[in-house]
Amino acid sequence: QVQLVESGGGRVQAGGSLRLSCAASGSIFKINDMGWYRQAPGKQRELVATITSHGTPNYADSVKDRFFISRDNAKNTVYLQMNSLSPEDTAVYLCNADHENWSGYEYDYWGQGTQVTVSS
Which helix (H) or strand (E) holds 113? Predict the structure, then answer.
């Protein structure tokens, strides 16, 4: 089992910044892609950004040039730097990790989520 714990959410005014962190722990063999998703009330979960184990990022169009994803493989931790936040970014942000075990079996793990609220 792998556990993901997010931190860094909170309330911020429009134009502000927040940095989210997500640390993976437990029986880790190999973590492939890690990423952040978000879900606003009444809306479907959507991809925010992902990053490969080699550090290649991928962003949703809505956050490009404002959000930046990074990871520390030694710490099994992924970060999301969020700048120029707007009320439309208000959501629960969830961390995701694609874990691969010794036999090559892959499984997606999710964190509990951290609330980000942006006020106008």
Answer: none
